[in-house]
Amino acid sequence: MDPIFIGLMFGVLVSAVFALIERREKKERIRYFIKSFLYFFLSIIVLGFLMKFFPYG
Questions:
Q1: Domain total for the chain?
Q2: Quick check: pTM over 0.90?
Q3: Residues near 32 by Cβ (< 8 Å), separated by ≥ 6?
Q4: Which of 4-8, 31-35, 50-54 has the highest mean pLDDT?
């Protein structure tokens, strides 16, 4: 599987669980889900780009 797809699925699942656990109202859950998903996905992209410069061991 493509690492971007795995990161996308990870971001969706973790953000959904966090939104369901931490927020009570539906509007707050949706806003929190979108914000946390974008943070997860962008951090995966940035860290993947930065790790490209390190050798593989």
A1: 1
A2: no
A3: 15, 18, 19, 22, 23
A4: 31-35
28-37's contacts with Cβ under 8 Å and 24+ in sequence apart are 37/11, 37/12
Instruction: Judge contact between 37 and 17, C-beta under 8 A.
Output: no
Round to whole Å and give the CA distance between 57 and 39.
28
CA dist 30 and 15 (Å) reads 10
**First-last CA distance in the chain:** 22
Asked if the structure places residue 23 within a domain, the reply is: yes
Neighbours of 36 (CB within 10 A): 18
Residue 35 included in any domain:
yes
